[in-house]
Amino acid sequence: MKSYAPWDAHRAALAELLSPFLDKFTIVDVGAHGTGEADVYAPALEAPNALVIGFEPNTEECARLNLQSAGRRRFFAHAIGNGRPGIFHVCRGPLTSSLLRPNTAVLDQYENLAELCEVTAEMPIDTVRLDDIGEIGAVDFLKLDIQGATLLALENAEQLLQQTLVVHAETEFVPIYTGEPLFSECELFLRQRGFMFHHFHSLEGLRMTPAGAHAVGRHPSQTLWADAVFVPSLERLARLSCRDLARLAWAMDAVYGACDLAMVCLRRCAENGGPYLAERYRSLLAEGGMLA
Question: How many domains does the chain have?
C-alpha cells in the first residue's frame, strides 16, 4: 500500500487515541506467500504490540518470511484446510499454487491464465484446520489468500470465526480451480455466521481469448476474482464489547479508510458504557481533511 503523509499522521493519532484497546492486535495471514511491508494489513501493524501469525505451505518461502520478519511476525509451514491429507498443486506462477487442481477448461479461455496455473509438481501434504491451531486465539483481522480453498478453510474455522472481527478473503467468480466454491457460496457461509459483506478491496480480470487467437481490447471486460471484505453483521455489531468495537474501528480505518464504519463503532462504544471516543475521532478526521 502506498503511503501518504496525511494518512500516516492520521493513523498515528488514531493509534494513540485507541491505544488502551489495541494491545496485541492480532492478524492471521493464511497463504502468506509474498507477504511484506506492502501487504494489505500492513497499516494495522501500527497498533501497539500488533502481531501476525501466518501460514505458508511452501517451506522455502515460509523460511524466508520468518527470516525477514521483525519479531512480531511468525510464520508456520502449514497448509490450511480440513485437517486431512491432500495434494498441493505447485504451479508455474507461485501465487497460483493450490490444494485444488487448476480447471483447464476455464483457464484456456483467458489470456495467459493457463500458463500461470500450469502444474509443475504435485506434493502430498497434510492440512491443518484453523480451529486446531493452538497459537491462535481471538482474531482481529483474518486474511485468506489460498487460491480457491477459501470456503474449505472457513468451514474448518467455525470456532475461530466467532472471535474474528474482519475477514479479508480472495474469492473467485468463475471456477479457476476444479470444484472450487465461488464468491456467492463464501458470502452465504459467512452471512450465516454473523458477517456481512462490506466491499471488494480489489477486482481483477483477464481478457477472454478464443482458442489459438490473440486477445482483443485494451482492458479485460470480465471480473474473475476479487478480495472480499466481511465485517460483523448489524445484529452482531450491536453486541460487540467496547474493546472489540475499538479494534474493529482501527482495522477499518487503518486498512481501508472506512471512516463511516469506524465512527459507528466508536459511537456504539459509548452507548455500551465505554469512553466517548467519537467526537475526538471526528476531530482527527477534520484535522486531516477527511470529513465530507
Answer: 1
